[in-house]
Amino acid sequence: MIQFIGTTIRYEKEQPVREFNLEVSKGEKAVFTGPSGSGKSSLLNALMGFVPLACGEIRINNQLLSPATINKIRQEISYLPQELSLDLDTVGDLIYYPFEFKNNRHLKPDNHKINEVLKLLLLDESILSKKLSEVSGGQKQRLGLASVVLLNKPIIILDEPTSALDDDSAVAVAKLIGSFKKTTVISASHDLRWIELMDTQIKL
Predict the structure, then answer these.
(1) pLDDT at 83
(2) Which domains, ranges and CATH numbers included, belong to the chain?
(3) Among 4, 16, 78, 145, who pairs with 153 as Cys (CB 3.0-4.6 Å)?
(4) Which keywords describe this protein according to UniProt (predicted)?
């Protein structure tokens, strides 16, 4: 369970989130919607511990998110930002990147599992041998999602996960994410194709 309780986020010149309250149950697929600047990404960043709260709190499985607990909490989360800016060479590097961290090494998938997820995302396994510079923005976005899915964490956080995708790819991604019944998903999106397939829509 994820709880936002009186959550307020304030930057130097703006306050995008004020006294926000929400409870997301285990396995629920929730999406933040609304215009740019409404606080969608700010809430995701706060959930990851990237921005401090001005007041209020966030709890994950009844554990208060704080500087003392954030590292432990992040071990339960797979996160995909809107823009991937990793200095990597090949598609394979991107897929395996999260598994280089100590806490994820034991989760490293085999080739069969990787190819299975790529197929569900409408990607051919031959893409693994390509340079990242050779793949499109939409392919790169789906590869990032593949990496997130392969981590198999109980919570997934996605910022605009379908922004570069065509209709077929966007639906494939949403259906794959929705198939993980026990996985809690919180996302931010402008994309109606994604929004309509989520359990809960929160307009900001």
Answers:
(1) 80
(2) 2-203 (3.40.50.300)
(3) 78
(4) ATP-binding, Cell membrane, Membrane, Nucleotide-binding, Translocase, Transport
